[in-house]
């Protein structure tokens, strides 16, 4: 924002394209050959498709380096000892994918930690239904029954159907669940997109 005598002017900047992100990352890496061109291309396209925020691209590269270092250390420990200096592995697509997976998992659990009371009850309802039937695919209608039971136990007024439906869409958008495209939401099947045991453990820490 710019402040001047006539008020406030908001400056809007367009997000970087994947070509611009790749070029800037190459400049930041100062010609280093430790990361493959394909890996940089993957980072650039992933960031551009989500936000175009260059900081995220740099964070992915940093995390990919940490993962590569850890893997190299493990291989050195498990392999034969040698007096030769340890060679740092070239960062490839596998390292970038591992970094992306790690970051996505952290964002999901950060979302869970910041969930409201009713959002947590809805997530607990999903875990309860999973424990009852033993499969990761659950019906939205069954989830609502558990949620209402929890509200009764906690002496809380239940939220309306549209509010709960919106919450579930938020969970799907956050990557916690996947869902079938059913015209009737009550018949909609949800599938855990994270480990239900990890979700239960995260909820117990609240």
TrEMBL record:
Biological classification of the source: Eukaryota, Metazoa, Ecdysozoa, Nematoda, Enoplea
GO molecular function, one term: DNA replication origin binding
GO biological process, one term: mitotic DNA replication checkpoint signaling
Subunit description: ORC is composed of six subunits.
Function as written in the Swiss-Prot or TrEMBL entry: Component of the origin recognition complex (ORC) that binds origins of replication. DNA-binding is ATP-dependent, however specific DNA sequences that define origins of replication have not been identified so far. ORC is required to assemble the pre-replication complex necessary to initiate DNA replication.
Protein name: Origin recognition complex subunit 1
Listed InterPro entries: AAA_lid_10 (IPR041083), Cdc6_C (IPR015163), ORC1/CDC6 (IPR050311), P-loop_NTPase (IPR027417)
GO annotation, cellular component aspect: nuclear origin of replication recognition complex
Positions of the Cdc6 C-terminal domain: 112-199
Native organism: Trichuris suis
Domain AAA lid: 35-72
UniProt record similarity statement: Belongs to the ORC1 family.
UniProt KW keywords: ATP-binding, DNA replication, DNA-binding, Metal-binding, Nucleotide-binding, Nucleus
Cross-referenced Gene3D superfamilies: 1.10.8.60
Compartments reported by the entry: Nucleus
